[in-house]
UniProtKB/TrEMBL annotation:
Domain YCII-related: 1-88, 107-194
SUPFAM superfamilies xrefs: Dimeric alpha+beta barrel
Entry's family note: Belongs to the YciI family.
Organism encoding this protein: Streptomyces aquilus
UniProt xrefs under Pfam families: YCII (PF03795)
Protein name per Swiss-Prot or TrEMBL: YCII-related domain-containing protein
InterPro entries documented for this protein: Dimeric_a/b-barrel, Sec-metab_biosynth-assoc, YCII
Amino acid sequence: MEYFIYCRDRADSLDLRMRLNEDHWTFMDGYAEEMIARGPTFPAEGDGVSGSLHIVDLPDAAAAQRFAFEEPNYKAGVYRDVLIRRWRNTLGRTMWEYTGTTAGFGRFLIIAQGGPEAVAELELLDAEQRRYLEDGFGDRLIAYGPLLAEDGVTWRGTAVLAELADREAAEAMMAGDPYARAGRYESVEIHDWRFGGRPAD
């Protein structure tokens, strides 16, 4: 089961985060084989870190809870809240398999959260979204897929990792998403993001 986990940093927690880097990396080393994507996010303006993304393949909801809440940054109080959703790896690859790097482009995490109402046209919108994203942005997509409830079926939104020219390009991409055009997103967050992991020696 694939899980999308996004942790938002508390204000003024950067120093604590930096002190915990080695503990964080050591914890994540235990999930190296299960990791699909990871990395910190940054505010659009100003300094610091705004959060941490991890997409991991885990056995069940209990394992996802352990992953999120036994992580050293969480236990020490770096994060102010944690979003956990089932996820589906539509492209079927990890971020390390992405080969489309373009000089001068930025990387973005986009979290588009849907409303609580059921989506009757889910199958149609899902197919339209795949055509829209993969035909129009295929070489810019690092990973994407639906955010799902724990049943693995009920749609709760979309998460996209993409490499694009700038934030305006990310906004334009999501404005044209079929779910957005159908009014199914309650909110769309665009975060500056970079590949995470222990720095190479």
